[in-house]
Amino acid sequence: MRCKLVNIIVVFSLLFLCSCRVEMPKDVIPPDKMEAILYDYHLVQSMEGVAYTSGDYKGKLFYRGVFDKHHVTKEMFDSALVWYNRNPKYMVEIYENLESRMQREVNALASLKSSRVYGVDLNFAHLNSNISELWTSHNVRMLSAVPLNNKLAFSFTTPKDSTFVTGDSLSFSFNTMFISPLKGAVNQQAYAAVYVEYTDNTVGSYALEVDSSGHYELHVPRNYKSRLKSMDGYVYYCDDDTTNESKLVVSDISLRRLHPVQSKSSAKNR
Fold first, then answer.
1. What is the fold, at CATH topology level, of the domain defined by 119-268?
2. pTM, rounded to two decimals
3. What letter would DSSP give residue 122?
4. Residue 232 and residue 196: Cα distance in Å, rounded?
5. Nearest Cα to Cα of residue 50 among 59, 40, 42, 41
6. What digits encode the pLDDT tens for the residues 2-40?
7. Which residues of 178-197 are buried (b: 16+ CB within 10 A; e: fewer)?
8. Domain assignments of the chain as residue spans, ordered by start
């Protein structure tokens, strides 16, 4: 009798779990394929502002190339994103895999260099004469309110013989996606800030509040009196979800340095 009771409980438990499972429509891109598409999609997004501007014809061709590579249309991709956002458990799993994949690839590249710090490595950054992409870590992070996983942070000091010059400007940008299984019941919030110090010991701090999914940018204006000495920055996430299931995806992270543009007349006079 006891065995029969146990079997009945097991059967009802399985039926309950099956009834609670959200069935994925056949026309939605499956998770493994969606993960591959998002990986290439974020790579293209991370190039914006460096190789071309957002909305540029060349940029649109890159996005089209991603969809063609995976044999989907933009409409299929957008529709799948809507479904995954409504079913955050699937989305969380996808971005956990993306984060691990990007970290593995960055570690593989970093192993070729002896000097390595998290986020920014000036010896490994993509430096050129005008615009430089300084961010060298993986550009997708998933944050939760759990301590030690609630902050994306970076810090670096510029060497004296670096390509940084007086008059440089800096831009720290990223995209955000708030994910929560408890729609409307969770207060999710994030804050971003950068702190800069110059060789003449002057300092500057810039911050913004992140309260919705979208694109954010912190701009550090030009300092024509002194060269950048060091920079610290972070994105800090918090919420009131006691289950710790709510997340913040920070993607397409970019830290760019832009040299001042010299006029032709000033260049001739030098």
1. Jelly Rolls (2.60.120)
2. 0.72
3. T
4. 7
5. 59
6. 444 434 444 444 444 443 456 788 889 999 999 999 988
7. bbbeeeeebebebebbbbbb
8. 119-268
